[in-house]
Design goal:
The longest helix has 14 residues. Helices cover 29% and strands 26% of the residues. It has a single domain, classed as Dihydrofolate Reductase, subunit A. By secondary structure, the protein is α/β, with parallel strands linked by helices.
Amino acid sequence: MTTAKSEPGNRTVIGNISLSLDGRFAGPAGERDMSWIAAHAVTDGSRSHMVRITSAATTALLGRKNYQGFASFWPAVADDETADPRDRAFAQWLNAVEKVVISTTLQQADWHNSRIAASDPAAAVRQLRKEEGGDIIVLASASVIRNLLQAGELDRLGITLCPELVGGSARLFDDGPAGSSWSLTDVNGTESGAICLLYDRIRAGQ
């Protein structure tokens, strides 16, 4: 899969995450409780959303836990002929794309084309914006998305809103980040009842 590259300074930073109706990004059993998402992640609509939102990205920004989870699952899907073609396309993109891991504890990143950035997410993004490349996308890392929202470094927000009331776990939005305005640029329903929403940040002068 080929992706268009932008000049330094013109890269779009995207946060993509699944949320419940009550704003949770994980279940009551903890950060790794994704059972409530499973039925909504395997629909035609959600798979097409992932391919669409990553097609122009050349850098994936990940927290340590998501990086390790993705690395243990997705590489094998790329060559699995029994997998859904869109899952294979996403896996192939993920294998090839530049992967920047935000971590102060990870000692090495062995997945192809991976590197560790010990700085905070906003600082890493500001550096990436200076480099040539396509979109920069945060894949499901709530702490990274929160940091970028607070710092004003997130340009686009993709939310797959799942028709579940999860309860008893962390929300993406609490009292922060600081106020901002967003424009709905794309919306697609899925067979499970989840809705894939895409918002662009409205900045001063727009």
